[in-house]
């Protein structure tokens, strides 16, 4: 069985495969971590939203995400036409690695400052329950 890339390279003989595979890959992409799914779910719970509101929120997020991706793709095709992508790819990978390492270092430094400035005890922003808090009675 030929690979997906080979099927695409075989011209329009397998064009029927493009749309269903794009929908499948998009659906799988939407199931990946991120995309503010937790935040949207918390919003629906907080406002005591209905199923219809949840569906409308999901559709709005899907449409806006799709429009942004298309906008970036079309803008990139217009601005970077004639540029060899293989030439710039290593530099983009280095830049993204530097950003990820920078964020990790920033998080470690912030965590170190919090730990050194205050003694970790119950009731601090670490998420622990305070021993001094009184139990909530109904």
Automatic annotation (TrEMBL):
<dbReference type="InterPro" id="IPR051224">
    <property type="entry name" value="NiCoT_RcnA"/>
</dbReference>
<keyword id="KW-0406">Ion transport</keyword>
<feature type="transmembrane region" description="Helical">
    <location>
        <begin position="12"/>
        <end position="31"/>
    </location>
</feature>
<feature type="transmembrane region" description="Helical">
    <location>
        <begin position="51"/>
        <end position="79"/>
    </location>
</feature>
<keyword id="KW-0921">Nickel transport</keyword>
<keyword id="KW-0472">Membrane</keyword>
<keyword id="KW-1133">Transmembrane helix</keyword>
<feature type="transmembrane region" description="Helical">
    <location>
        <begin position="91"/>
        <end position="109"/>
    </location>
</feature>
<comment type="function">
    <text>Efflux system for nickel and cobalt.</text>
</comment>
<keyword id="KW-1003">Cell membrane</keyword>
<keyword id="KW-0812">Transmembrane</keyword>
<dbReference type="Pfam" id="PF03824">
    <property type="entry name" value="NicO"/>
</dbReference>
<protein>
    <recommendedName>
        <fullName>Nickel/cobalt efflux system</fullName>
    </recommendedName>
</protein>
<keyword id="KW-0533">Nickel</keyword>
<comment type="similarity">
    <text>Belongs to the NiCoT transporter (TC 2.A.52) family.</text>
</comment>
<keyword id="KW-0171">Cobalt transport</keyword>
<dbReference type="InterPro" id="IPR011541">
    <property type="entry name" value="Ni/Co_transpt_high_affinity"/>
</dbReference>
<feature type="region of interest" description="Disordered">
    <location>
        <begin position="118"/>
        <end position="138"/>
    </location>
</feature>
<keyword id="KW-0813">Transport</keyword>
<keyword id="KW-0170">Cobalt</keyword>
């Amino acid at each position: 069985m030929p690979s997906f890339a080979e099927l695409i390279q075989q011209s329009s003989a397998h064009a029927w495969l493009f749309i269903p595979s794009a929908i499948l890959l998009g659906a799988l992409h939407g199931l990946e971590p991120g995309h503010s799914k937790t935040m949207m779910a918390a919003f629906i719970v907080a406002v005591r939203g209905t199923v219809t509101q949840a569906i409308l929120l999901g559709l709005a997020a899907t449409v806006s995400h799709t429009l942004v991706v298309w906008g970036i793709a079309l803008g990139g095709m217009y601005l970077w036409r004639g540029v060899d992508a293989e030439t710039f790819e290593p530099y983009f990978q280095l830049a993204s690695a530097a950003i990820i390492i920078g964020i990790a270092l920033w998080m470690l430094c912030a965590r170190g400052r919090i730990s050194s400035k205050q003694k970790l005890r119950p009731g601090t922003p670490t998420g622990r329950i305070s021993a001094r808090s009184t139990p909530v009675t109904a």
